[in-house]
Amino acid sequence: MNKQQLITEIQSQGLRLIEPEIGASGRKGGAGPSDHKAIVIDNTTVMVPIFTSASSDSPYTARFDASTDQTILELDGAAIAPIYFPSQPSFYRLTTADGIPYWKIALLHSRDVLATTVLQTCIRYGNTATSCQFCAIGQSLEADRTSARKTPAHLAEVAEAAVRLDGVKHMVMTTGTPNTRDRGAAYLAECASAIKAWVHLPIQAQCEPPDDFAWFERLRKAGVDSLGMHLEAVDPTVRSRIMPGKATVPVEYYFEAFAAAVKTFGWGQVSTYLLAGLGDDLPALLEACDRLITIGVYPFVVPFVPITGTPLADHAPPRHEFMVTLYQQIAGMLDRAGMSSQSIKAGCAKCGACSALSIFESQD
Questions:
Q1: By three-state DSSP, how is residue 39 classified?
Q2: Burial profile 210-243: b = 16 or more Cβ within 10 angstroms, e = fewer
Q3: pLDDT 10s digits, 146-171
Q4: Of 173, 212, 205, 201, nearest to 271 (Cα)?
Q5: How many helices (H) and strands (E) does the chain have?
Q6: Which residues contact 1 (CB under 8 A, 6 or more apart)?
Q7: Cβ neighbours around 1 below 10 Å, total
Q8: How high does pLDDT run on average in the chain?
Q9: In Gene Ontology terms, what is one molecular function of this protein (predicted)?
Q10: What is the dihedral of CA 158, 160, 163, 165, to 10 degrees?
Q11: 107: three-class secondary structure by DSSP
Q12: Starting at the edge strand that comes first in sequence, how are the strands of the sheet with 226-228 ordered?
C-alpha cells in the first residue's frame, strides 16, 4: 500500500489505540477539526481520528512493541509500518501570571503549528435553526478545557513561548462568529498585532467574510500573513441542511470576498476548507475547486470527521476511494496552476495534516 492510499484510508476510517494515552493528548471538541491525534508516518505528520465512532471499529490499530520500543501501525492485526506520536509540547507546562494554563489559550496542532480560537463562542452555536451540525466549538468550553476569550496579551505570551521552547513555525487563529458586522476580523487584527509585537511568527486568520472588505487590508497591516474563509460545503441544498445559519451567507458572496482577499494577501495566500462527505458530490466539489484555484484561492479539502456530541456524530465519513479520486483531480488542478500548499505562509492548508491533499500534490 502506498503512502497516499494509507493516509487517505486512515483519515477516513480512523485509528484504534491499544494504549490510549500514548503520545501527546488528543483533542476532543472545540472549533474546527477535532477528535484527532497527531501521528507521524514515514516522516509525514497527519491528524487521524481516534475519538470517533468510526475509529472504534477501524481495522487500523496502533500497538506499542516493547521489544523494539516502537509503535507499530497494524491493519487487521498485520504490521504495516512504524509510527510515532509527537510528544507533549513544553509550553503546555506553563501558566500566565494570572493562573491560566497556556494550553487553555493555544494548542499545538500537528508537529509545529500553534492554533487558537480567539473567541470560543458563536452566534450560530446552540440554536438548531442556525448552528453548523458538524461543529463542537462549545464542547471544550463547557468542559473547561479552554477560555471563552483569549486576550491579545496572553496569545502573544503563549506564542513567544511556543516558538522558543517547541520550535513552532506558524500560527492559526480562528474564531467563533460574533454578533458584529466584521465577523471577528477586528478582534483577530488586535490579536495579530499583539503577537507580532512579541515574536516573528507567520499567522493565518480565519473568519467569515466581513461586511466591509477593507478589513482584509486592516488584517494584513496588523500582521496577518494569510487568510482562511471557509465554505465547508458548496451545494446550496447541502449548506442549508447542514449549516442553516452560515448558509444565509451566499456562496457568491464568499467568492466576492475571496477575490478581494486575494488582491490583499496575494495569489495562493487565501484558502477555504471544504469538508468532503457532507453531501456534495464529486462534480460539485471539483467544479468549486477549479473555480477557487482560478481566482487564486487554495481549496483545502479534508475528509469530514463526525465529532462526538454533535448532530452529525453518527454521520458516515467519506469512503477513501472517493477521497483518492478527489485528491488526484485537485492535485492535478493545483499543479497546472502552479499553486502549492508549501507556498502558503501560514495556516491549515500549509500544515496539511488534516488532509492527504498535500501528499498527492507533491507526488502528482
A1: strand
A2: beebebbebbbebbbbbbbbbbbbbbeebbeebb
A3: 999 999 999 999 999 999 999 999 99
A4: 205
A5: 12, 13
A6: 9, 80
A7: 10
A8: 93
A9: metal ion binding
A10: -80
A11: strand
A12: 107-109, 113-117, 170-174, 203-206, 226-228, 270-276, 297-303
Instruction: Report the C-alpha gap between 167 and 170 in whole angstroms.
Output: 9
Domains and CATH numbers, the chain: 3-84 (no CATH), 90-363 (3.20.20.70)
What SS3 state is found at 78?
strand
DSSP 208: P
Amino acid identity for residue 127 in this structure: N
Q: Which three cell numbers stand for residue 125?
A: 452555536
Give the side-chain half-sphere CA count within 13 A for 190. 14
Sequence-distant (6+) residues with CB within 8 A of 151 are: none
pTM: 0.94
Our CA angle for 111, 115, 118, nearest 5°, is 170
User: 23 pLDDT exceeds 70?
Assistant: no
Place of cell 494577501: 265
Q: Grid coordinates in use for 242? A: 447542514
- For 331, residues 6+ apart whose C-beta sits below 8 A from its C-beta are 357, 360, 361, 364
> Residue 5 belongs to what H/E stretch?
helix 3-13
Q: Cβ–Cβ contacts within 10 Å for residue 25, how many?
A: 13
In the three-class reduction of DSSP (H, G, I as helix; E, B as strand; rest coil), residue 217 is classed as: helix
How far apart, in Å, are the Cα atoms of 351 and each of 178, 225, 343? 26, 14, 11
d(CA 37, CA 29): 12
- DSSP state string for 292-320: HHHTTEEEEEEE--PPTTSTTTTSPPPPH
